[in-house]
Structures are given as C-alpha cells and as structure tokens.
Design brief:
mainly alpha, 295 residues, 84% helix
Length: 295
C-alpha cells in the first residue's frame, strides 16, 4: 500500500491529481482565512499552515512533472492543423499573426484613450491615442506594402526604407507630446494598484520586444523586421508613459524634468531605429536565392 501511494505521489495523474488540487485549494483558502480573520493563532491554524505549505511544494512538483508532457501534447495537437502548424514552425507567419493581434489591441486601446480623453477632457489621453493611431498607420503601411512587394527584393527594400522614414513621424509625435506636457502641465494616473500591474507588463513588453528585435534580424524578412521594430518603439513609449504615471503617483511636480529627459531619450531611440532602417535599406544586397525577403 505504501509503495502504491508513493508511486501515485511520484507520478501524479488522473483522479488523484484532481483530488489533490481540490484539497490544496481548500487548505490554501483556509490558511489565508485563518491568517486574516483568526483573532488568535491556535494549533488548528498552524496545522492548516503546514498543510498549505506542503501542498504548495507538491503543487510546484506537479507543474514541473507535467510541463514536458503538456508541451509535447500541445505540439502534437498543433501539428495536426495547418494554421497552428505554421504558427509553430514559420517565424514570419507567426510574426504576422501576432502583429495582427497587436494591431487589433492597438486599435482598441487607441479608441479607449480617445473616449476617455473626450469624456474626461484629458489632453494626455488624447495624446496617447494620437501616438497609437500613428503606430497603427505605420503597421498598416508595412503590412500592405510587404504584401504587394512579395518576392520582389527592390520593392521590399523600399517598403522597409519607408517604414524607417515613418518612424521619424512617430518620434515627432512623441516630441509634440513632451512639449504639450510642459505647456499644459498634463499628467496620467493609474487607478489604485493598477500602476504595479502596468509596471510589470511594461517591463515584460520591453524585454520581449528587445528579444524579438534581435531574433528578427537573424530569422525574419524585411517586413517582419519592420513590424518588430514598431513593437520595440511601442515598448519604449510604454516606458515613458509608465514613468509619467509613477512620478505623478510617487513624485512631485519638480520631477517634470525627468519626464522631459525620458521623453527626449525615447524619441531619439525611435529616431535611431528609423535611421538604422534607412541606412540598412541602402546597404542590403539581394539574396542569392532570388527571394524578395532578405534575411
């Protein structure tokens, strides 16, 4: 009996795993309730804490144990369908799909900021919306231009160059926002604890954008690289917005100088990305296989 129980614990599966998750949820809920509501700590409280701690340790073990199996099952399921198989194996296709999702999110976010700006009469929200509408226009130009220039190196290179030029428009938009901040003393705040969630998401966004920027240079075509560059510009802008919100929440009006510095730095970085794309478009050579997408 002991060896059978040990085998179940070493190889969690099926009903035993389901029962454990139910018990773990119950003990964890009870432990939190005791910690918050119990006027005094009794033996029952400490037993519950111990069970919750042991359950947490075993919960982590089950996740580590099952992760490879879940991954393999997911990969096999994705290979059965053309769309998910391309999503898994084709880097360019994956970039376009994620760019489309990001495009829809950008539209929704820009519309939301526009509505909030009109209702609350907030210039700052309107400024955020303006930046994202320009970013949306850039993505549309890159996507449509790349589609028309497919398998034509010269046309693809021109699209890449135009995207680099348009990044300067994005930098100009950001510069206008910084100037407007100084003229109107506008600011931005997140409600309650949302600022911490926004900070976590912004750091994830900038790290992911930097990693994808590096990958696209090695694996993606020119249009894919342009889309990744736009995502990097978006992430840099998010850092600026987060700083404005954090200074408003934890700083003082005297820290407006920091916003100016960060805004100028982000605008210069975006301009630098655009300049890099323009210069690179002139130095690129046609691929030997004749494919329109230089890699």
């Amino acid at each position: 009996l002991f060896s059978k129980l040990l085998d179940i614990l070493k190889h969690p599966r099926g009903w035993s795993l389901f029962v454990f998750y139910i018990l773990f949820a119950c003990t964890l809920t009870a432990a939190i309730a005791f910690a918050i509501l119990a006027p005094t700590q009794t033996i029952l409280c400490y037993v519950c804490y111990a069970l919750a701690a042991a359950g947490l340790a075993y919960f982590v073990y089950t996740i580590v144990y099952l992760a490879p199996k879940i991954k393999n099952s997911t990969v096999r399921a994705m290979h059965r369908h053309r769309f998910t198989d391309n999503l898994l194996n084709d880097y360019g296709f994956r970039t376009v799909v994620f760019a489309t999702v990001g495009f829809v999110v950008n539209i929704g976010y820009a519309l939301l900021q526009t509505i909030v700006g009109i209702v609350a009469r907030s210039i700052w929200n309107i400024a955020i919306a303006a930046f994202y509408f320009v970013l949306i226009a850039l993505k549309v130009i890159a996507f449509l231009g790349g589609k028309r220039a497919k398998n034509n190196f010269e046309k693809t290179r021109k699209v890449y160059r135009v995207c680099g030029c348009l990044l300067f428009l994005l930098a100009v938009t950001l510069s206008a926002i910084v100037i407007l901040m100084n003229k109107t003393n506008m600011h931005f705040e997140y409600a309650g604890m949302m600022i911490y969630a926004a900070a976590a998401y912004t750091f994830y966004k900038i790290i992911a954008a930097a990693v994808q920027f590096s990958k696209a240079k090695k694996r993606g075509g020119l249009v894919v690289q342009a889309l990744r560059n736009f995502n990097l510009a978006d992430a840099l802008y998010s850092v600026f917005v987060l700083q404005v919100a954090m200074i408003q929440a934890f700083g003082s009006a005297q820290n407006a100088f920091a916003n100016n510095i960060t805004g100028a730095a982000v605008a210069l970085l975006i301009s630098g990305i655009g300049l890099f794309m323009i210069v690179r478009s002139y130095t690129l050579k046609p691929p030997p296989d004749g494919d329109g997408e230089n890699r």
